[in-house]
Design a protein that fits this description.
heterodimer; A: mainly alpha; MetI-like fold; 13 helices; about 0% strand; globular; B: about 290 residues; mainly alpha; 11 helices
Chain lengths: ~350, ~290
């Protein structure tokens, strides 16, 4: 089975690398038409004009944009993403230090979105034609109209301020320190045998991951419902009925296999958006991930960071899309023939 | 009574959506007449007043005041201006670009189609929030650039959905007949294909307006939208977040306002999708 899938996945990977190159070039161009001068910002404030000019030449800023891009790409290939203007530290280290936090949050939110989306879709389909469906359908528009940052704010007001049940800043209680390791707190704390840190991390993740997960679930619900409606028109479902199978078995064992496919390809797109949505949720919950790094960099006009973080988001999104597409190929034998 | 209404209006969702949008639009247009106070007028003696129904309120400030003693209601009313301006102009801009490319890709196919498809792929690898943030860094702040950023980010939403619709329409017999008669490409697209895809286009614009409201709120929340002199809903949230314990109301009102605005556009879009009978599968809606 895998032999038919691997070349297709390989082709998808090559396409992703190609897209990444274009994306990095676009990023480079957008950030270099900026009205700020990176050379002037990376020398001490009392530098003379000649010193700034020397820095410009040193940084290659006097050359055409595509040459600059080539230089930058060459450095990136050697793992050199430049130095942050504000923090005076290597950008790669800063990104790598914050990326695990964001991935942890995004993964948990995707689980929340998937569970809620699939459950809601099944419920919508199960209650089709009844009043309950109309109510849930209306509810799904309400959900659709509430983006993740509004959920994040509502949750803070409800469970942080009105009923102080959960913490809403950072990843851990202030008196705890991050255990050394991968940067994935839930994993590190268990590995270090610290259930107290694990529990604190979980409590800090509940509100952000619920906010993101709930915001992205209604689209999954609606797609699953409509693909169920499509699948139930097919002859094999009628045949299954004639064979006397129970409705439950038809739904879960026969219809779900086909209905899940459009839902899965939508979830690839949704998870890309969700990964971008972590930025706002991180800012609202002061969660130390990529998003906060990015927003700080934007405020400080810290170009090397903006560039690297922007690229990091794209790499993760492309990875998610490739994984979902491969899963799609594994689950849908029809696509493997070509 | 019902028969007086045109068919596209015979839906509770369309009417609810239009009513909400009409209220917000009226607030935007007549803000100076409706707002009880100057939205930027500070009064440091009366900061953090609660809304009138809570204890210790001042009836001159219906929804209370913020950290600088500015009237929350007036700021919400004036904030509708930025929101509606962005919603209308940005979504039409995104529609014009996205639809043009979709018609070209779907009608001509071949190399044009695959080129536009590649561009969409590149755009899709960027989370919209990240892309609009980076564009705002590149373009600089200001209302015009917010609109430009939304157009640049969101044209793909139109392009992706409309392209597949155009592919279906373009393969119909009446299009082949139009070609045989010798109509020009321009005439076939504008007179035969666009009318067939108009319901879908209208529905998409309505949904996009809601998205534009959200994006503007997000950008002004992180301080990358209009200047602080212009009231904007996202900005009010950002201000109130720092004083969440002093006055949770200040956070709640703009958040609810954004929700209602987006809800209005989504209801209208969803209602139109049904009354205009758009065969829009949910995959395409995203």
């Amino acid at each position: 089975m895998m032999t038919g899938v691997l070349p297709l996945v390989g082709r998808r990977l090559v396409a992703s690398v190609f897209i990444l190159l274009i994306v990095s070039f676009l990023l480079f161009v957008v950030l270099h038409v900026l009205p700020v001068d990176p050379a002037a910002m990376s020398v001490p404030p009392n530098a003379t004009l000649a010193e700034i000019e020397a820095k410009r030449v040193e940084m290659g800023l006097d050359r055409p944009l595509y040459v600059q891009y080539g230089i930058w790409l060459g450095q990136v290939a050697h793992g050199d993403f430049g130095t942050s203007i504000h923090f005076r530290r290597g950008v790669l280290g800063l990104v790598m230090a914050t990326l695990p936090a964001t991935i942890e949050l995004a993964l948990l939110s995707m689980i929340v979105a998937t569970v809620l989306g699939l459950a809601g879709g099944l419920l919508l389909f199960h209650t089709r034609g009844t009043r309950t469906e109309k109510a849930i359908d209306f509810g799904s528009i309400l959900l659709l109209s509430t983006p993740e940052f509004l959920w994040a704010l509502f949750f803070i007001l409800m469970f942080g301020v009105a009923l102080p049940l959960l913490p809403f800043t950072g990843r851990l209680d202030p008196n705890m320190s991050l255990p050394a390791g991968t940067g994935f707190l839930l994993f590190d704390s268990l590995y270090a045998g610290r259930p107290d840190i694990f529990w604190s991390a979980v409590r800090h993740l509940i509100m952000p991951s619920l906010a993101l997960g709930i915001a992205f679930s209604p689209t999954i619900m609606r797609v699953l419902r409509s693909s169920f409606l499509d699948v139930y028109q097919e002859d094999y479902i009628h045949l299954a009925r004639l064979r006397g199978l129970s409705e439950r078995r038809i739904l879960l064992r026969h219809a779900l296999k086909n209905a899940i496919l459009p839902t899965l390809s939508l979830m690839g797109v949704q998870f890309g958006f969700l990964f971008g949505g972590t930025l706002l949720v991180e800012v609202i919950y002061s969660y130390p991930g990529l998003g906060n790094l990015m927003v700080d960099a934007v405020r400080n006009a810290d170009l090397p960071i903006i560039q690297a973080v922007g690229l990091a988001y794209c790499v993760v999104v492309l990875m998610i899309n490739t994984i979902v597409d491969s899963l799609y190929l594994v689950l849908n034998p029809k696509l493997r023939l070509r | 009574m019902r028969n007086i209404l045109p068919p596209w209006l015979r839906s509770a969702r369309v009417i609810i959506g239009l009513s909400i949008i009409a209220v917000i639009a009226l607030c935007a247009v007549f803000a100076p007449l409706l707002a009880p106070h100057d939205p930027n007028e500070q009064n440091l003696l009366t900061t953090f007043l609660p809304p009138v129904w809570a204890q210790g309120a001042d009836s001159a400030y219906l929804l209370g005041t913020d950290s600088l003693g500015r009237d929350v209601l007036s700021r919400l009313i004036y904030g509708a201006r930025v929101a509606m301006m962005v919603a209308v102009i940005a979504s039409f801009g995104a529609m014009v670009i996205g639809a043009t490319l979709a018609y070209l890709a779907g009608y001509f196919g071949g190399r044009i189609d695959s080129l536009i498809g590649r561009a969409v792929d590149v755009w899709m690898s960027f989370p919209p929030v990240i892309m609009s943030l980076i564009l705002m860094v590149g373009l600089g702040v200001g209302l015009r650039n917010v609109i430009l950023a939304i157009v640049i980010v969101d044209w793909t939403r139109f392009c992706r959905v409309l392209r597949s619709e155009v592919l279906v329409v373009a393969s119909k017999d009446y299009i082949a007949a139009a070609r045989l008669v010798g109509f020009s490409h321009w005439r076939i697209i504008t007179r035969e294909i666009i009318p067939a895809s108009l319901p879908l286009l209208i529905t998409l614009v309505s949904l996009e307006m809601g998205i534009a409201v959200i994006v503007e709120a997000v950008l002004s929340f992180v301080g990358l939208s209009v200047s602080s002199q212009t009231p904007a809903w996202g900005q009010m949230i950002a201000d109130a977040r720092q004083y969440i314990y002093d006055s949770p109301w200040n956070l709640l009102f703009p958040a609810l306002t954004i929700f209602f605005a987006v809800f209005g556009f989504n209801m209208l879009g969803d209602g139109l999708r049904r009354t205009l009978d758009v065969r829009l599968t949910a995959v395409q809606r995203v």
